[in-house]
Design a protein that fits this description.
The protein is α/β, with parallel strands linked by helices. The protein has helices at residues 7-37, 54-67, 79-87, 111-127, 149-171, 177-202, 210-235, 239-249, 251-254, 266-272, 276-289, 295-349; strands at 45-50, 71-76, 94-96, 102-105, 133-136.
């Protein structure tokens, strides 16, 4: 006796098909995070040796040779020049040799880079049988002693932005794309304000420049939301995976919030130059700790991602308009065909 389709088997196939997305997320997150963070090693980490005599040149060359590519060692004539380089993030440590050696660092640029430099020069000072004095010229705010609070601010704002993409795409599917885009911009404002509250009054991650932190956070969140809304037109159910690849897997790992590019695999270091998470992290660092040095370039990065989102939404709007036109034409054609069939049936009946 014939039987109909097995509803249980159909439901199971449906579940298994949808499980593919979280499994791919697991695979992607594991590959990205472990590749980026599991074995940080310095490469071409810029450090300075302060001095101008032959002994300074010998020390710099010896250190360069022993580092075998881990360090990029140069000499600078005096402490003031070394300090300027640290404030401009042109170097990550400056060693002043002598009977009482001193190491200058700027932990606000990257606490992990400062620690890597300190480890190197502690050994150098030990070879000279002298204790090393470490001076932090640009320390972080008291509420962010490790300097990694900005990274976790990035995480919070990112999650608020890309999670909202799924909600707007699903719950707002019946809304015109222009209205969805306006909702996205409004949502980015709310997300950035929440992030700013975390950074300032709640956790005191920064002790000044809160308005700039908000502006950078809004530009960053708006870019994510617009890109996500535009992608939803094309990716549909795969949108969540797509935005996670862009704004979590590749974004968090290349942001420089935990390890700067000089301590990472070259792939993530190359992304750091133009990815939006790096634009936010480095933009906030430059704004809060380094008197705006490098801020313009990071704002440009965030603005270009925002522009990419605006362009993608515009293209998606045209695609949806074309689909609606084609759908209306198909419905009209079917209605016309049904009407002709009814007329033929009436004629036959007569």
């Amino acid at each position: 006796m014939p039987t109909g389709p097995n509803p249980t088997a159909g439901a199971l196939r449906h579940v298994l098909g949808h499980l593919l997305t979280p499994l791919l997320m697991c695979l992607g997150m594991g590959l990205a995070y472990l590749a980026a963070f599991h074995a940080p090693q310095p490469h071409d980490l810029r450090v300075d040796i302060v001095g101008s005599g032959p002994a300074t040149q010998v020390l710099a060359q010896t250190l360069q040779d022993k580092a075998a590519g881990a360090l990029d060692v140069r000499t600078v004539p005096d402490r003031a020049t070394a300090a300027t380089a640290l404030h401009q993030q042109d170097s990550y440590g400056a060693y002043i040799p002598g009977d009482h050696p001193e190491l200058l660092v700027a932990s606000a640029a990257s606490d992990t880079s400062a620690m890597a430099v300190e480890k190197v020069f502690t050994r150098v000072a030990a070879d000279q049988n002298a204790p090393l004095k470490v001076t932090d010229l640009v320390p972080t705010a008291s509420g962010d002693p490790t300097g990694q609070g900005i990274f976790f601010l990035l995480v919070a704002v990112s999650i608020g932005a890309y999670a909202s993409v799924a909600v707007i795409g699903a719950a707002g599917a019946a809304l015109p794309l222009r209205l969805r885009a306006l909702v996205a911009v409004g949502t980015s404002l709310a997300v950035s304000l929440i992030g700013t509250l975390f950074a300032g009054p709640v956790f005191h991650l920064v002790d000044h420049g809160l308005a700039g932190v908000w502006a950078l956070s809004w530009l960053y969140a708006a870019g994510i939301l617009l890109i996500g809304i535009g992608l939803h037109t094309y990716l549909r159910r795969w949108t969540t995976l797509g935005v996670m690849v862009l704004f979590v897997m590749l974004n968090f790992t290349s942001s420089g919030g935990i390890y700067r590019p000089e301590l990472q695999h070259g792939f993530f270091g190359s992304l750091h130059a133009f990815w939006n998470g790096a634009g936010l992290v480095e933009g906030i660092r430059g704004h809060v700790y380094f008197d705006g040095h490098g801020l313009g370039g990071n704002v440009l990065v965030l603005a270009l991602w925002f522009l990419a989102g605006a362009v993608l939404v515009t293209l998606a709007g045209r695609t949806e308009a074309r689909r609606n036109t084609e759908g209306a034409a198909t419905v009209s054609s079917e209605e016309t065909k049904e009407g002709m069939e009814e007329e033929m049936e009436e004629a036959v009946a007569v």
